[in-house]
Amino acid sequence: MSAQPKRYRSLATLERSLTRCRACPRLVEWREDIAATKRAAFADQTYWGRPVPGFGDPRARMLVTGLAPAAHGANRSGRMFTGDRSGDWLYRALHQTGFANQPTSVARDDGLILSDAWVTSVVHCAPPDNKPTTEERDACRTWLHEELRLLDKLEVIVALGGFGWDGLLHALAERGHVTKPKPRFGHGAQAQVGDYVVLGSYHPSQQNTFTGRLTEPMLRGIFERAREVIDR
């Protein structure tokens, strides 16, 4: 178990501290190198190049947690799942199920508003090859730990991908929410973990969406189930 995390007064103070974090040298070097070299298609843009904070409704009853910011998505835009194909799928599904006011998420100032939902990730810096190490996951989990504490209306948590599922369960265990045996990840997996209903979904990565492993109805169905939980 990691050390007890620092407690923050609000999500705003948490965000200010998070965006200054330099705890993992490999991730700091990578995110800043990507922000400096850029992708040709975004050469005229200023990359965020810092840890990406969570985003959404502070009174959310649903939390969505992914793996980590994409190098040219959230690491560029500065907002979770914003500016890449994974975000296109996620926010379209959230819009279809009443959690978002629009189906697109392209920039921090595009007018997107989440209702009853908060979107975050287990690791807040873009990792090389989209693969954080276990040590980086554990170092970053303090932020998720605090989000869970500060989002005190939460009832359901959607974990995108096995990495997000495992990181979430570790954070919940540190907060005293333990279920044995450990719930197994899978698309559509559902478990009661302490006070929360935890739902598993395949991550809307191109690897999953291009191959048909995850379809739009499959992803939408997860959020329809989340809606049923919080509206019951």
Please describe what this structure looks like.
By secondary structure, the protein is an alpha/beta fold. 38% of the residues lie in helices and 12% in strands. The chain is built from eight helices and six strands; from the N terminus they run ααββααβαβαββαα. It has helices spanning 11-18, 25-37, 74-77, 85-96, 134-150, 161-174, 206-209, 216-231; strands at 55-56, 62-66, 117-121, 156-160, 190-193, 196-201. It has a six-stranded mixed beta sheet with strand order 1-3-2-4-6-5, sandwiched between helices. The N and C termini lie far apart (34 Å). The model has no long low-confidence stretch (mean pLDDT 95).
SSE string, helix = H, strand = E?
HHEEHHEHEHEEHH
Overall number of strands: 6
Which CATH class applies here? Alpha Beta
Give, in spatial order, the strands making up the sheet with the most strands: 1-3-2-4-6-5
Radius of gyration: 16 Å
Number of helices, counting only DSSP H or I runs of 4 residues or more: 8
Structural class computed from helices and strand pairing: alpha/beta
**Mean pLDDT over all positions:** 95
| CATH level-four homologous superfamily name | Uracil-DNA glycosylase-like domain
Q: Estimate nothing, just give the exact number of structural domains.
A: 1
The global form is globular
